[in-house]
Design brief:
By secondary structure, the protein is of the alpha/beta class. About 40% of the residues lie in helices and about 20% in strands. The strands form 4 sheets. Strands 1-2-3-4-5-6-7-8 form an 8-stranded parallel β-barrel, surrounded by 9 helices. A 3-stranded antiparallel beta sheet has the order 11-12-13. Helix 9 links the parallel strand 7 and strand 8.
Length: about 525
């Protein structure tokens, strides 16, 4: 069965705290959603702000292959004709093939918020839908607070739906606006609405009880054929239903047709693209597309996954464009190390595997963690392998060698009259037979040291200019030690093709940062060398 996907990230999603899309962001996301086969893209309310008004003019220039753009607005004002209503005029002036009109279905809202009669509200719905329909638009009707309205006055709630359907709405969407309805109730009420209407039914859920995906699936199973939601579930309060999880479940668990053929493998990529546009951090544990969605840590788990991934995975990560990750931690056993080192073609050497495992456990006892620092683990493998008894170097692994010798570093922070402190990092390193002594100013100690170190090395290793630090995290390892506690610093770096994490631990936050920074640069050099760059 085909389930139509209606994306409202550009409107409902932008109402989420901290989310603000530029006009260019909105156009880029429209194109990306069209590329994967989203059926409807709600661009916003053209009367609400200049950016939304400009969007509906600019989006006409996009060559969309599949999606229909929708303009969103409200029913006409009370006691006024639809033909002169400024909101409806703005909807029509947006020149979208579809308009979505939201109206009241809860009698409490009609009398206490709109301040009108129940009969006038029904006329407002019917007149608005009929007028937009007469102007050649397909009309969707969003029944706001439908589930609360049905609980309070089911006859009236259904009456409002019939008014929209009889006036020409092709789809009536049932909205759990407050996000407080339970799945079994959603199924029951959707079935009742399905029996009362001849038009298609949609579902629009919010996530205030963390049940939006479950509620959406319950609605589809009860007869809804359109799903409204946002990418990654962003939105006001606790957010909207996450279209990523919803689409994956509908397609992979229920066999429904969603998006275009082959597009499921782009879910992870698209999810992360939206996070970047919205300037939000990824959710590691997000189902299907999160970095941790197919990450395995416990020794028993990794042992089983190495034999058959289906032992601990409900789908293959590739089905949604994600990847499997085997994490290294103090919980790791031999099987984890075997899985992690398989790419190096060295795991035939059981003694070496035991040494690597022992090194990991010793370092984690000192405060290290390698789950988010796989580049540091890569360097650790090289170092342990180098110290191992006579061992034949494999093609897939270059034994550890220092690319430069660290002599000293210094950080100076100077407070000036302007009130903005200035940080300067100075490093002395030996590269081959030359000593480099460089300095760099930065926004903080790590930024300054990074600039100084790369300035010293880039003459010898030009590809370091491609590299950038993109994230920096600090965690206290043993807080009971107070100001003498160890800190763990994790740095995330990237170049044009890869992202990698490194870790450093010390009682001194600058030293911990320096260790992670050096690992990051050394990993980049090893990576490029093995790629023949």
């Amino acid at each position: 069965m085909k389930i139509a996907i209606y994306d409202t990230t550009l409107r409902d999603g932008s109402q989420g705290e901290g989310v603000n899309f530029s006009l260019q962001d909105k156009l880029l996301l429209t194109k990306r959603l069209d590329d994967i086969g989203v059926d409807y893209i709600e661009g916003g309310y053209p009367l609400s702000n200049p950016k939304d008004f400009e969007y509906f003019q600019a989006v006409r220039e996009l060559n969309l292959a599949h999606a229909k753009v929708c303009a969103f607005g409200m029913t006409r004002r009370k006691n006024a004709p639809a033909e002169t209503d400024t909101c409806l005029k703005a909807l029509l002036d947006a020149h979208t093939p579809v308009v979505t009109i939201v109206g009241k279905t809860w009698d409490f809202h009609v009398t206490n918020v709109l301040g009108t009669t129940l009969d006038e509200n029904v006329k407002m719905i019917a007149d608005s839908v009929a007028y937009c329909k007469s102007q050649g638009r397909e009309v969707f009707y969003d029944a706001e607070h439908f589930f609360d309205g049905y609980r309070a006055n089911p006859d009236y709630a259904l009456r409002t739906l019939r008014a929209a359907a009889d006036a020409g709405a092709s789809v009536v969407i049932l909205c759990d606006t407050n996000g407080g309805t339970m799945p079994e109730r959603v199924a029951e009420v959707v079935a009742a609405a399905r029996g009362a209407l001849s038009c298609e039914i949609g579902i629009h859920c919010h996530n205030d009880c963390d049940l939006a995906v479950a509620n959406t699936i319950a609605a589809v199973r009860a007869g809804a054929s359109q799903v409204q939601g946002t990418m990654n579930g962003i939105g006001e309060r606790c957010g909207n239903v996450d279209l990523v999880s919803t689409v994956a479940n509908l397609a992979l668990k229920y066999g429904h047709q969603v998006l275009k053929p082959g597009a499921l493998t782009r879910l992870t990529e698209t999810s992360r693209y939206v996070y970047e546009l919205a300037n939000l951090n990824f959710r590691p544990g997000q189902p299907f597309v999160g970095q941790s969605a197919f990450a395995h840590k416990g020794g028993m788990h990794t042992h089983a996954v190495a034999k058959d991934p289906s032992t601990y995975e409900h789908i293959t990560p590739e089905a949604v464009g994600n990847e499997r990750r085997i994490l290294v931690s103090e919980l790791s056993g031999q099987s984890t190390i075997l899985s992690k080192t398989a790419k190096y073609a060295i795991n035939h050497d059981k003694a070496l595997m035991a040494k690597i495992l022992g090194a990991v456990q010793d370092l984690e006892n000192a405060g290290y963690e390698f789950e988010a620092a796989e580049a540091s683990f890569d360097l650790l493998v090289r170092k342990v392998a180098k110290e191992h008894k006579p061992w034949e170097v494999q093609n897939k692994l270059t034994l550890y060698k220092p690319w430069f010798e660290r002599i000293s570093y210094r950080v100076n922070i100077e407070a000036r009259e302007s009130g903005t402190p200035v940080t300067e990092g100075t490093v002395r390193v030996k590269v081959r037979d030359q000593i480099e002594h460089t300095a760099s100013e930065g926004d903080g100690p790590v930024n300054a040291l990074d600039g100084a170190l790369r300035r010293a090395l880039v003459r010898f290793y030009p590809r370091l200019s491609e590299m950038a630090l993109v994230d920096y995290k600090v965690r206290v390892v043993n807080p009971r030690a107070g100001t003498a506690a160890r800190v763990r610093v994790v740095i995330e770096s990237r170049d044009g093709t890869d992202v990698w994490g490194t870790v450093g631990v010390s009682e001194n936050i600058i030293e911990a940062s320096w260790l992670a920074l050096v690992d990051s640069i050394e990993y980049k050099l090893f990576k490029d060398a093995e790629a023949g760059k």
